[in-house]
Amino acid sequence: MASHRRPKQPSRTRVTVLTTAAAAAVAFSAQAANAAPSEKPSKDEVKSKVDALYEQTEQATEKMDGAQEKQDKLQKEISTIQDNVARGQEELNKLRDSLGSMASAQYRTGGIDPSVQLFLSSDPDDYLDKASTLDQLSGQQVEALKKIQAKQRELAQERAEASDKLKDLSATRAELKKKKDEVKSKLAAAQKLLNTLTAKEKAALDAEQARASRSSTARVDLGSTTSASGRAAAAFAAAQSVIGTPYVYGASGPSSFDCSGLTSWAYAQAGVSIPRTSEAQANAGTIISSESALKVGDLVIFYGDHHHVGLYAGNGQVLHAPHTGAVVRYESIADMPFQFGVRI
Predict the structure, then answer these.
(1) Contact status, residue 152 vs residue 144, Cβ threshold 8 Å
(2) Which helix (H) or strand (E) holds 334?
(3) Which residues share a beta bridge with 332?
(4) Which of 184, 232, 284, 323 could join 54 via S-S bond, C-beta 3.0 to 4.6 A?
(5) Annotated active-site positions, please?
(6) Using DSSP, how many helices (H) and how many strands (E) does the chain show?
């Protein structure tokens, strides 16, 4: 008969530990429930973070502009090569037809060796290498074969060049997509931060920027264009005509601009072609190391990697397209890390 024993009761020590753990869990839950939410960033903190994101966006934008410019250039070069190849192939076909006509004429008169069929082969190099065969050819035929040989080599070289450029174009397109995605990502992050602001905070930021813009405009020496050269003055006047136009990354006018899009467009209106990107524009003229030596219309390069550019407006001010969400406007050079000026 099986014996019946009472279940072993938990020890007093174990009961105490369990009770203490349960109490701690309850206390922790209560603290978590009553804990204050993480503090919302202040208006100034949001502005600082957004400004940093806009700077990173512009860096990516200038790289994107460079990739776009390279893509456009490659597409034109490839199109030109392909046109040359097509015309060269037509010329080659005519040369072969001409040689074929000579061969037919000789064959009808019985003065041709059967090996003349090699004239029409796709590899005249192989034919010319056979010195014994050349004895069967007239001087005119030899000259025709040499022309075919030269044209085939030229076409092969052009096709190889086109193939290399197509590979480069594919890599450039991939880089362009990468930079576009990076720009979109940075802008989305900036917008997410801006969305944390209240309507009152947004209005306060807009008011601050409006005051700064009015102050810069008031400090611009509007009569100082006389110190600029004719073309620099004309470029500056063109940029002035689009003050208030929105910044859009990758845009080069006239309804929207990014920073280098504005400067390249402005100089184009003055009849001067300068590179599309700020990095390339930094090497487009005479370097002006001192801010005090700048003249109205000079390019002004900012940041160590030269990812931002504007036009000198006089009296320590620059006219530029700042960033997404802003418009073409005057701003103090002191607001950004000045590197040097460029006189076109």
Answers:
(1) no
(2) none
(3) 317
(4) 323
(5) 259, 308, 320
(6) 9, 6
